[in-house]
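Q: Can someone sanity-check these two? First one:
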Amino acid sequence: MKNTDDIADVRSAGTAITAPGGHPDELLPDGDEIPEFVLKELEKLSKEDREAMLAAYAHDHEEVPQVTTVEEAIKHVHTQVENGADYVKIMIEEGTVMGAPGLPVLSDEILKAAVEEAHKFDKIVIAHVLTAHSSQAAIDLGVDGLGHLFIDRPDYTPELVQSIVDSGVFVTPCLVLNSSIIGNPASQLANDPRVHSKLSLDWIDILNSSFNTFPQGNIENSFKNVMDLHRAGVDILVGTDVAPVPVPNLGGLAHGASVHHELQLLVTAGFTPIEALQSATSKPARRFGLYDRGRIAEGARADLVLVNGDPTTNISDTLSIKAIWFKGVQK
């Protein structure tokens, strides 16, 4: 939603380009039945809002256009742009780290056509990747950003890092997701009174669980990978990859709260608190062309958060929120 004064901006890539039966199908419930957790959320809404949500759910679960050819990929890009997509996203996910090895992935030829078509519309293209191999594939396709950080650390990691540097792409590591994938719940975050007091019990339960689809993974590899990229000059952006509602099989993540967790994990990896804050403010604004925000400066939008403490020295102080201003108006 753009040009509104009472809600945050929402920008989207619309429906990602993926193979029939490809990611994220393995994460979605089977059939057309509305999941229980969605019905539970609907009960809390007014009749008007409930009907709007049901209509939106039906729209989101209509037959997704199949992409199996270059022509269909190009058409899909056109459809997303016509529907108002701000960016274009492609999926390169064969499923091993998601506990679903063998997921279908579109050919490089098809994905390359999608990337090139999106660029004709001046759209940023982001690739979902979770391994070193898929990360290099995305770079070779000419994408602008990597959504997620490769969770493995093969011998050719230095060459991959250099390839990412040379390409000029940004990386949104979503360390919170990598941590969850290898089986780490976000219990420390869930138990923080500044989080616990603001989330429903459903969301607290989700934070206290995890994906646990790649328990053989090692979070230290992700920390080393993100620091290699950071030290090499790659723009690292804060992101969390969370579900819109508390989904039992997508544990360890929660809207809003996981942003603060991501900041903490970046600092644990080796970022200074100021560098982590830049990855959540000025760097995303610059990389996504939002030049009117992301920094405190004359002429910039007055989107401000007041906290107790000093997050430039103690990053968890970002959770001690006292007040928020949106376009200069306190909320």
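And here is the second, same format, sequence then tokens:
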Amino acid sequence: MGSRIVILGGGTGGTLAANRLRRVVGDDVAVVVVDHDNSHVYQPGLLFVPFGLTHLDEIVRPRQHQFHRGIEFHQAAVDHVDLGAQQVLLEDGIALDYDVLVVATGATLLPEETEGLTGRGWMEKMFTFYTPPGAVALHDALAWFDEGRLVVGVVDLPIKCPVAPLEFCFLADWYFRQRGIRDRIELTYVTPLDGAFTTRVAAATLAGLLREKGVELVTEFNTGEVDGPGGRLISYDDREVGFDLAVMVPLHGGAPYVGRSPGLGDELNFVPTDEHTLQARSWPNVFVIGDAANVPTSKAGSVTHFEGEVLVENVRRFLAGEPLDRTFDGHSNCFIETGFSKALLIDFNYDTEPLPGHFPTSVGLPLLKESRLNHLGKLMFQWFYWHSLLPGRDIPGIGSAMPEHGKHREPAPL
């Protein structure tokens, strides 16, 4: 009997890993994907739903239709993983033995962990666009919101797609200007960081854009409580930010089953992972891809894409008894929609922060600079997602490692 690879999660990481593995491991290795539902959401599209720029039926497709022939899809929730027995126990009573386990169950929203956030006012004046129902409800709320203070608040890090809350601010500025009511709306961005972003050069650029668009930036604000009826965010040090409409990015954690699987996860249910091989630190035949890993890079779809090449090669090497590839460098690449048909692009890794220049070469897309070309690139990415990234195909000229060409190592004056 051949080996079996079990992949937990049928999102971006699980799907592209399954499709790449199906091509490289041969027919004598079974590839099984497990997920609790059959709806694959193109998550970057959720940002556009509140502004009427896309609809759910354009960004949601059946998971099972994204897998190559020969991949088994099992729809069930995971109860726990028994690492010693090399078994995944599912809530439908089935136990799946594995030779290699790939954890790809992403990050989970934990709004209930913030006092008051899911209390009175939740989905009435406090929303999140990080879920399909939340994005749709926020679309309806924005349609009637024509005066007052809109606050975009990040509770804590890490979060999926760290630039998305900033993008929401930029698009909200555009949206209210299009409606002719921008002068009646106060926009505020609240973050626990000491700047607009996690790295110096990008933070300065993004803070400048917030100023240009009239968005107030409140930093080092650690939200401990949300008072829905009173319209207040309250920090742990008793600072307050008032709101008439709050767009919140809740605390994130790993999938709940990780916490029920002794030895698998950390205190937030993310999986401790070697940042270069993507092998779990807990067990040699467990690998991790995407937001489920605790590697020190952004929880973004591009990271998952770049991880896929190294992870699949390492699963192959593990099964063959070969030394693992240690070349994943934390490569992350993000388009940042800034409104009015323009976008920024940032490209960085573990050791190199976002810098000015071009991507992927000196004649490519402009980095850290608003352009219509970057906006078109962000729109085109949805096609690449369904037709290239998920099927596990390589994008010509773009590999897993961050390209060095085209970047200005000495940051330009800001």
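A (reply): Looked at the second one. DSSP finds eight helices and 24 strands in the chain. The CA atoms of residues 101 and 286 lie 5 Å apart.
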